[in-house]
Amino acid sequence: KAGVTQTPRYLIKTRGQQVTLSCSPISGHRSVSWYQQTPGQGLQFLFEYFSETQRNKGNFPGRFSGRQFSNSRSEMNVSTLELGDSALYLCASSSRPNSYEQYFGPGTRLTVT
Amino acid sequence: GENVEQHPSTLSVQEGDSAVIKCTYSDSASNYFPWYKQELGKRPQLIIDIRSNVGEKKDQRIAVTLNKTAKHFSLHITETQPEDSAVYFCAASIRGSGYSTLTFGKGTMLLVSP
User: Fold this and answer.
1) In sequence order, what E strands does chain B have?
2) How far is it, in rounded angstroms, from Cα B38 to Cα A57?
3) pLDDT score of B54
4) Is A60 part of the contact surface with chain B (CB cutoff 8 Å)?
5) Chain B residues whose beta carbon lies within 8 Å of the beta carbon of residue A68
6) Running DSSP on this structure, what letter comes out for residue A25?
7) A85 φ, ψ (degrees, to nearest 5)
């Protein structure tokens, strides 16, 4: 089975712009979670989707949003980018909520200048 | 919400030594505790996990122990090798809640010197 894929792998944006990141889960997996990884804060939960519905949301401002499509692919969007949004954005897929194993994608490295 | 503390933040050992990384969690409802290894520039990889109905789990050179009463769990790596060098993250989660949300510790950078 192919693993979790994320596109693009690297992105450079300017403050004030918006960005959309994409995640394709492992085939057959229907649950997708997003995490932000920074050196200072570590791995922080952004949101989780299952069957096109947001199941849970972390403590991030409304500029961070996401969605999931009927084929389980997920996108996250960050509007009005700030310098502090520079991070590695990771998605993780699992077969369903409450399943024990989650597998991470390679991440998208976002740099905001 | 859940809070996970991880210590130490860095750990240097000689090849062949053992390494121990400790985590504490705050939410007594947490019942699933995975450990991830992240090599430089790569994705976090699940290396071992433990559920709250088990006190210890072993997989070759890696073991994890859980003390529910004290709300702490530990990763033990024996006979360390240079390829064990990476950042290790512990996490806690509540399975059965309808979510898969993981709360992570801040990570431990393990350096194994030949």
Assistant:
1) 4-7, 10-14, 19-25, 32-38, 45-51, 56-59, 62-67, 72-77, 86-92, 103-104, 108-113
2) 24
3) 84
4) no
5) none
6) P
7) -80, -5
Establish if A107 touches chain B: CB-CB under 8 angstroms.
Answer: yes
Percent of chain A with pLDDT over 90: 88
| Structure-block tokens of residue A28 | 């057959």
3-state SS, residue A104 = strand
User: How many Cβ pairs closer than 8 A exist between chain A and B?
Assistant: 66
| Cβ-contact A32, A91 below 8 angstroms | yes
> Residues B58-99: pLDDT tens digits?
999 999 999 999 999 999 999 999 999 999 999 999 888 788
Q: Do B101 and A98 touch (CB under 8 A)?
A: no
Residues 6+ away with beta carbon under 8 Å from A16: A80, A81
Query: Mind listing the pLDDT tens digit for each residue in A5-45?
Result: 999 999 999 999 999 999 999 999 999 999 999 988 899 99
| Interface contact flag, B101 A44, Cβ < 8 Å | no
pLDDT bracket for residue A112 (50, 70, 90):
very high
- The whole-number average pLDDT for the span B22-36 is 95
Question: Beta-carbon neighbour count of residue B81 at 10 Å?
Answer: 12
DSSP H helical ranges for A1-113 = none
Alpha-carbon gap, residue A101 to B57, rounded angstroms: 16
Helix, strand, or coil here: B97? coil
